[in-house]
Design a protein that fits this description.
The complex is a heterodimer of chains A (275) and B (288).
Chain A: H1 8-34, H2 39-42, H3 56-63, H4 65-98, H5 104-113, H6 119-133, H7 139-163, H8 167-175, H9 180-208, H10 212-217, H11 225-232, H12 241-257, H13 259-274
Chain B: H1 7-34, H2 51-57, H3 60-94, H4 97-112, H5 115-125, H6 135-141, H7 152-181, H8 185-192, H9 197-208, H10 210-224, H11 228-234, H12 246-257, H13 261-287
Helix pairs in contact in B: 1-13, 3-7, 3-10, 4-7, 5-11, 7-10, 8-9, 10-13, 12-13
Classes of the chains: A mainly alpha (275), B mainly alpha (288).
Chain lengths: 275, 288
């Protein structure tokens, strides 16, 4: 090992890595910094690092009705869709993982193939359907549409999670007289909990970040936060940049809260593969 | 040991039924709409059968969108895999366990961002006068202006760079984890044979990881289809139609410009058929 230590190649490799790490976070940090600047400090030809910070942008964003409504809509639509995904997706995944029938492969492929559908192809007909039923631009319509996403994603990720639960534990519980349902509730769910939480967090991030469907299914009442944020910029770049930057930061915070959970999930997926 | 139980039926059937309804209703209805001549502004409609599809093939903007979409797929998938494998191997080679964890955490951040956020972050960064990414260019050239998002030649690559920023860094983490799962013996053996570091990876480790890497590429091909958010925020398909992908064109036909829902739906149906056939075939090959 030692003879490789001081090679110039190693130094270049480390530099490239450090540069990539810098590129990964710097643009976002810069945006966060701009959210704290007055407009005069943003619109400069030479980027300013030293400036007098202001909370005006953030308080402006948090004081706007459209942003608060968007935040509420996003929270309700994503929360409800994830809840439906959990209630319908987890049991179905457990059933596929533990009671495989001859359709198991086809079921898994069907669930995955839902991801192939181009979002426009789903959004256009749904818009017409919701318009006809009179549910266009409402949260229930958005929740039902997002449920398709959350159920399939949670199911897809939970199948391997349940398969990772040692069979012996479940068999032992059967011997102890547990029924099939209580084995699911008391054994499989708690044992697989860590991976399952990762899967659920992933589905939340996916729908929170969703844009195209929300854009097509809402016109005023049911706008989610990504739509509101994108509309702030439609007034051209004349809108104070600080405000736009602040809205980007607000939009990005919830998914970043799951950074720890998701990177742990990633680790556990690959630890399973190794063993 | 497992007794016969009602669990598989009660757990699986309702979910599958709901998934089937939620997916088949829009899919079939998309086809129905595509065979009609609905418009957003007018309530009435009639059946026009395949004339929307016939019109599409003489629509030069549609053919341009097909070409842009194909370019987008190729550029983003290739660049993502190159960045992912490059950085993954570098981390495997020169970073210790703690540094690896640190980089992994950093590299996951961009992909978690909503694409709308990522698009804005880079739209600001690429601003010709005040952007942080164009600043080095202004500094070196003494104030010349470089506007990557408004030049037809560079716009697609500028938007694609954001996609690669999100997915390439994330996949680098996965490539690293894949490398870590490999048994050390073949690598040791190659090293004893005086193989160079890059040779070990080119001829030993990466070929061993062929199957998972192909699956990874497959995932990226599917995710690359979802380019709409980035393009909508950053360029709106412009300059001209230089970055107008199929979903962007379908959206602007259906909603912004003319409200021709049926026409847009015909486009969506063609996309759907193309992607479902392609990916089903690819998936069956990956699994085989």
């Amino acid at each position: 090992m030692k003879q490789y230590r001081m090679r110039p190649g190693r130094l270049i490799a480390k530099t490239v890595l450090a540069l990539a790490g810098f590129l990964a976070v710097f643009p976002l940090l810069w945006t966060a910094l701009n959210a704290l600047k007055n407009n005069v400090d943003i619109i400069t030809r030479v980027p300013k690092v030293v400036f007098t910070p202001t909370l005006a942008n953030i308080s402006y964003i948090l004081g706007r009705d459209s942003v608060l409504t968007g935040l509420y809509n996003s929270a309700v639509a994503c929360g409800a869709a994830v809840l439906i995904g959990i209630v319908l997706g987890l049991p179905a995944a457990y059933s596929v993982a533990r009671y495989p029938n001859r359709f198991a492969g086809d079921i898994q492929f069907f669930v995955l193939s839902l991801r192939f559908l181009p979002p426009v192809a789903v959004a256009i007909p749904l818009m017409v359907i919701w318009l006809q039923i009179g549910l266009y631009d409402t949260l229930p319509a958005l929740i039902v549409t997002y449920s398709l996403l959350t159920i399939s994603v949670i199911m897809w990720l939970a199948i391997p999670a349940f398969q990772g639960v040692p069979k012996e534990i479940e068999e032992a519980a059967f011997v102890d007289g547990y029924g099939a349902y209580s084995v699911f509730w008391r054994i499989a769910l708690p044992v697989a909990a860590r991976s399952l939480i990762g899967a659920i967090a992933f589905s939340f991030v996916l729908v929170w970040n969703e844009f195209l469907i929300a854009l097509m299914l809402s016109s005023s009442n049911a706008k989610t936060l990504p739509i509101v944020a994108s509309e702030l910029s439609q007034q051209g770049m004349n809108v104070p940049w600080g405000i736009l930057n602040a809205s980007v930061v607000l939009l990005s915070l919830p998914p970043l809260l799951f950074l720890g959970v998701l990177s742990g999930f990633l680790n556990s997926v690959f630890r399973q593969k190794k063993s | 040991m497992r007794r016969r139980s009602s669990l598989p039926v009660t757990f699986l059937v309702p979910t599958l039924a709901i998934l089937l309804v939620l997916s088949m209703v829009p899919t079939l209805y998309a086809i129905v709409i595509a065979l009609q001549n609905r418009e957003l502004s007018a309530p009435g409609y009639s059946w026009v059968w395949f004339s929307n599809f016939a019109d599409l093939f003489s629509d030069r903007r549609f053919l341009n969108a097909v070409w842009v979409s194909v370019k987008w797929e190729i550029v983003t998938v290739v660049a993502t895999m190159v960045v992912a494998i490059g950085l993954g191997v570098l981390m495997f080679e020169v970073a210790g366990p703690r540094l690896r964890n640190f980089y992994c955490l950093l590299f996951i951040i961009p992909v978690l961002l909503p694409r709308v956020s990522a698009a804005f972050v880079w739209k600001f960064a690429y601003h010709p006068l005040y952007g942080i990414a164009t600043y080095p260019y202004r500094l070196i050239t003494g104030g010349l202006i470089f506007d990557p998002l408004s030049k037809p030649g560079t716009a697609l690559f500028a938007v694609a760079s954001v996609d690669v920023w999100q997915w390439g860094l994330f996949f680098a983490v996965i490539v690293l984890k894949l490398l870590e799962t490999l048994p050390p013996q073949p690598i040791e053996a190659a090293r004893l044979d005086h193989a160079k570091r890059w040779q070990i990876h080119a001829y030993v480790t990466l070929p061993m990881l062929k199957a998972p890497l192909i699956s990874l590429m497959f995932v990226k091909m599917i995710e690359s289809l979802r380019s709409f958010d980035l393009i909508y925020v950053m360029t709106r398909g412009g300059p001209g139609v230089a970055t107008e992908t199929l979903d962007m064109y379908a959206f602007s036909q259906g909603f912004i410009e003319s409200g021709k829902v049926s026409y847009a739906s015909a486009m969506a149906v063609l996309m759907m058929i193309a992607t479902v056939i392609t990916f089903t075939m690819l998936w069956k090959r990956v699994q085989a």
